[in-house]
Design a protein that fits this description.
Blueprint (H helix, E strand, L loop, with lengths): L1 E4 L17 E3 L12 H8 L6 E5 L6 H9 L7 E4 L7 H15 L6 H5 L6 H11 L8 E5 L7 H13 L5 E6 L7 H6 L3 E4 L1 H4 L3 H10 L6 H11 L3 H9 L3 H5 L10 H10 L6 H10 L5 E2 H8 L4 H11 L3 E3 L6 E4 L1 H14 L1 H17 L3 H10 L3 H17 L3 H9 L3 H6 L1 H13 L3 H12 L14 H12 L3 H15 L7 H14 L3 H18 L2 H17 L3 H17 L9 H13 L3 H13 L9 H17 L3 H17 L6 H13 L13 H9 L6 H8 L3 H15 L4 H10 L11
Parallel strand pairs: 1-2, 3-6, 3-7, 4-5, 5-6
Antiparallel strand pairs: 1-4, 8-10, 9-10
Helix pairs in contact: 1-2, 3-5, 3-6, 5-6, 9-10, 15-16, 15-18, 17-18, 18-19, 19-20, 20-21, 23-24, 23-25, 25-26, 25-27, 26-27, 27-28, 27-29, 28-29, 29-30, 29-31, 30-31, 31-32, 31-33, 33-34, 33-35, 34-35, 36-38, 37-38, 38-39
Length: 756
């Protein structure tokens, strides 16, 4: 993702090195950029109080150039983010927005660190950005250029939520080649959006005349009017017509602006490229595979030594080669030119296209730009290379919160590739398991079950077998004894230096608990804590600490339980693990310890947080989910809430129906059920929400309709409506707004981050 600041070139503070490419000032191409778009600028200025400006038009309409003129007003500085291919990730998008904003005025220092954390919700992500920018001297004003590349639903929902929650004076400008999947109808009804399209972006007659004059055309008024009528004010068409040396080409300008269009292609070939020498033509074709051009990458791809000088020379003589920064170190080709060059190259020799993409992939890998390296590996048709590169960054993506990126990359590998690299299928199953998606976990695990893999996977695990064994522990494969066997395999395989060592030891501890060996479980948890700390694996450390706390509670050692719980809570807070499903134990033990010490308020806060994680506790990881739900039910009982305990226990029992072979834990569930039968029914309140209702509740803070929530969850609208009404009833609310207020008061929407 390319990040740019407002064309005034303002720079700022702490986050200047963050983001994937670093901030760049847009430098509009000379010539046509000097045409002052008076009417268009006047229209844009009428939208100062609109939350959203949507600019949608095909290539060649000067969207970015016109907007650069508008955004150059120093009184209204805009941060500018140009979306790159494959950057469909809410954390990545919001991080780059913050980097661009920071260049205008320094943000509150923790905001970037708080964004890039795993398991962050949309609600929390938006809150963190808004809180981090709350002390800015000017409102948030952001341009999202090339927004048509944003297709991930979670990313679009996060962007929509940001737009909905903008403070007074805030504005987002969307620049796109086609309409983006945002709730424009709702914003139209609110008068919150200005929409700019082809009609508004097209040159007026006087602007066409100015353009032709600037391009050196000496024409009569009648000729200018003819060109204006034929091009319909399409700026790129005006430019192409102006440089045409022969009249027939001017008459052939197509109304459909695409570099793949025959007339436009012939136009470009005859009138833009014929004046170039052979080396320049080869250079243009070979480097057209790159979205962004610089001397070093072009030298590697085109196999030339003077690429930087070539780019500078081409930019001086051709307005379709445009600089992206004031130092003229980075460039891009106009979309029409690039589309034509790529089509021409592919038609001439598809094999060379793949070779060029491979060169680009190698260069980006060598320069630490791994996602671009992966994209070019895919384009080269080298999925084996793409898989290896993905393995090298998958854990980094996970720990930085870019789970959408990891998921979208994983989805691009077909079944055959996953069978060749089954460690990817294993990671996919683990991810789906944590998300509470058993069907997806089943599909991925089935691939891993029938595969073999030689050597160590690139994700950092010691072997595919050990990674798969840890999956099988959490999946409860083979019952308690199978968990024990798989855990032993993983611990034996992962050496002390492995980043997966703590994970394997935690699996061993879980297996020990499943077979009833609590002393060994405590030893394994202690070892896991040490290994996790050595590897800075905070997720593994908090799980082991919470496990030891549970064992201490079971033995009546409340002092040790308090110590372990306090440490686990500190790790969760410092590592920003809010929303991570495996923190359910830490929160449940916190609730039980606080309740034992008479701190009812703290107990309820911890229990409410744990309750928000219940939708993740499914039969995708049966033993852990049931054990977690047991702890939650006991926490409810400690707070004299038998109704809440029954609701949680019903969820555990539903898991056991689907996965009964999970060892002796089923007898613990039955024992707790008998205990509950002797207690009063209790009042149905917030604690009795089902896992399905909690999933719906998590979407209620967002500006989504009931139908849209159903689409996100993959269920019928009628189901969401029924569950919403049940939520209202249990919370004692009569409206969505009231339900949200009561849910926040009850701590059920505790995914929102604490104040900085």
């Amino acid at each position: 993702m390319e990040i740019t600041v407002d064309p005034a070139g303002l720079t700022g503070g702490a986050a200047s090195q963050r983001g994937s490419q670093g901030a760049k000032t847009i430098v509009p191409p000379k010539g046509l950029a000097n045409i002052r778009r008076i009417a268009l600028l006047r229209l844009l200025r009428t939208a100062r109080d609109r939350r959203l400006v949507s600019i949608v038009a095909p290539p060649g309409y000067g969207k970015t150039t016109a907007l650069a003129q508008f955004a150059a007003d120093p009184g209204y500085p805009y941060a500018w983010v140009m979306v790159g291919a494959g950057d469909n990730d809410p954390v990545a998008l919001f991080t780059d927005v913050c980097v661009a904003l920071d260049r205008l005025a320094p943000l509150r220092s923790p905001v970037l660190d708080r964004l890039g954390r795993p398991w962050v919700t949309i609600d929390a992500l938006v809150n963190r950005l808004l809180r981090g920018t709350s002390e800015r001297p000017t409102p948030i004003r952001v341009v999202i250029d090339d927004a048509h590349r944003l297709t991930d639903r979670t990313c679009l929902d996060a962007l929509a939520e940001l737009i909905d929650r903008l403070p007074p004076g805030g504005q987002v400008v969307i620049v796109s080649r086609q309409e983006v999947g945002l709730p424009l109808p709702r914003w139209r009804s609110q008068g919150a959006v200005l929409e700019v399209g082809v009609d508004e972006l097209a040159f007026q007659a006087v602007e066409t005349a100015q353009a032709l004059h600037l391009l050196g055309m000496k024409l009569t008024a009648g000729q200018i009017d003819e060109i204006h009528q034929k091009t319909e004010g399409w700026p790129a068409g005006v430019y192409l017509t102006a440089i045409a040396a022969r009249k027939p080409w001017a008459a052939a300008v197509s109304a459909i602006p695409s570099g793949k269009d025959r007339y436009i292609g012939e136009y470009l070939k005859a009138e833009v490229l014929t004046a170039l020498d052979a080396p320049s033509l080869i250079f243009l074709h070979r480097t057209a595979i790159l979205e962004e051009l610089s001397g070093p990458v072009c030298a590697a791809v085109a196999d030339v030594s003077d690429a930087g000088h070539t780019l500078e020379r081409l930019a001086r003589t051709n307005q379709l080669v445009m600089p992206l920064d004031g130092r003229r170190e980075r460039y891009r080709y106009h979309t029409l030119l690039r589309e034509f060059l790529l089509a021409d190259l592919e038609m001439g020799d598809p094999a060379i296209v793949r070779r060029l993409h491979r060169r680009a992939s190698l260069w980006f890998e060598a320069n630490g730009r791994m996602q671009e390296a992966i994209e070019h590996a895919f384009a080269a048709g080298d999925t084996d290379r793409a898989a290896g590169l993905f393995g090298g960054i998958v854990m980094e993506l996970h720990y930085s919160g870019r789970t959408s990126t990891a998921r979208s990359l994983l989805d691009r590998f077909d079944r055959r590739q996953l069978q060749r690299d089954p460690w990817m299928a294993t990671l996919g199953a683990i991810s789906a398991m944590f998300e509470g998606e058993p069907n997806a976990a089943d599909r991925m695990e089935a691939i891993a079950d029938h595969a073999t893999y030689e050597g160590a996977p690139p994700d950092g695990s010691a072997s595919f077998e050990s990674l798969r064994a840890t999956l099988r522990v959490f999946r409860g494969r083979g019952g308690a004894s199978g968990m024990r066997t798989n855990a032993d395999l993983a611990v034996k395989a992962e050496p002390p230096s492995s980043v997966f060592r703590g994970w394997a030891l935690n699996c061993s501890a879980l297996a020990s608990l499943a077979v009833g060996d609590e002393p060994r479980a405590d030893i394994d948890f202690r070892k896991a804590i040490a290994a996790a700390r050595a590897a800075s694996a905070w997720e593994d450390e908090q799980l082991a600490l919470a496990g030891r706390a549970m064992l201490a509670i079971a033995s009546g050692d409340w002092d040790r339980a308090r110590s372990m719980t306090s440490e686990a809570d500190d790790v969760v807070r410092s590592a920003h693990l809010d929303g991570y499903p495996l923190t359910a134990w830490a929160r449940a033990t916190s609730a039980r310890v606080a309740s034992h010490e008479g701190d009812v308020t703290a107990a309820r806060e911890s229990l409410a947080y744990a309750t928000s994680l219940r939708p993740h506790l499914t039969h995708a990881m049966p033993w852990f989910s049931v054990r977690s739900l047991l702890e939650l039910a006991r926490a409810h009982l400690a707070l004299s809430d038998p109704a809440g305990a029954r609701a949680v226990l019903r969820q555990a029992e539903a898991i056991l129906v689907k996965r009964p072979d999970v060892g002796d834990i089923a007898s613990d569930v039955r024992a707790l059920r008998r205990q509950l039968q002797e207690l009063p029914i209790g009042v149905a309140g917030a604690s009795t929400l089902t896992a399905a209702e909690l999933r719906v509740l998590s979407f209620l803070p967002l500006h989504l309709s009931i139908r849209e929530i159903g689409e996100r969850l993959g269920v019928k609208t009628s189901t969401v409506k029924t569950q919403s009404l049940s939520i209202y009833r249990k919370l004692g609310a009569s409206s969505r707004t009231q339900a949200l207020a009561l849910a926040i008061a009850a701590g059920l929407l505790a995914g929102s981050p604490p104040e900085f």
